[in-house]
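Lecture 7 notes: from sequence to structure.

We start with a single chain of 66 residues. Read the sequence below before looking at the structure.
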Amino acid sequence: MLLRRSIRDKKIAGVCGGMARSMGLSSTSVRWFFVLLVLLFGMSGWVYLVLWAIIPSDEDHGEYKE
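Now the structure, written as tokens:
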């Protein structure tokens, strides 16, 4: 599955939800991983913003269907 930001499974921008879906993991575990990286290294907040900017959303590609 291609990496896309999720518009259904999101808390901020859908980056973690989209990453979890493409890797077959739970979105909660990916979110906790990002929180852990922010607390330990501080730079993953910037990584999240960059991913938000470069990863297209489901809605942009017509993959979102109600």
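Residues 15-60 form one domain. Keep this in mind for problem set 3.
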